Amino acid sequence: MTERIRGKDCEDTGCCATPLAPQPFAGPGEADFPPPFAARFSPPGADVFEMAARAAQAGELGAADILWSADDLDLCLALVLEPDVAAAAARAMREVMLVAVRDALSSLLPPQVGIGVLRDGSITVNDGRMGTVRMDMPPCADEACPPWMVVGAHIRLRHAQGVEGGQDTQVTVLAEEGGAHIPPAAVASEIARHFLTALDIWRHEGEDSLRQSLASRV
Questions:
Q1: Which domains does the chain have, with CATH numbers?
Q2: Ranges of residues in the chain whose predicted pLDDT is under 70
């Protein structure tokens, strides 16, 4: 898939950790999104995925625009794309985002942390669900090229006040897995970088290569 950016085509691009003591939320940090992304920060609590879908449908956001938001509990990110392939092929962008989130967390968290992906789009860390990936595009036939699509990611950063780690063994958060010191902006920026890498794999090696990657645990 080649994303159109302001009239131009994108260039090809190439154990449990001991948790740190909880610290007050210091803000999202300074994001460093790679080109060609144009990112906008939305107020905490905003549903950036729905906002991005509405804006893309209205023509207010286009290819490579990102909306993201973070507070002390959650990070949410939504990326707008303008596919130039049929919908059946464009749906692989969900897998591209899954690989991107998995590899971004792998690059940020301690090496002994095990990161996996479930069929429902959940991202697991040490077998606890830490995040999810979503995708949306307007209804169209499989052979038609959708005018826009949005892929999004949600990462749990910390437990809500009064909730202790380990109460729900099926859920985990970034702060519990050695990431308490990582600003949300660094996570969002890293997801964007790894999205470009996963997109490049999809372009040159195909969807099967992505699926093989997703089947492995890092």
A1: 33-159+169-215 (3.30.930.10)
A2: 1-27, 165-167, 217-218
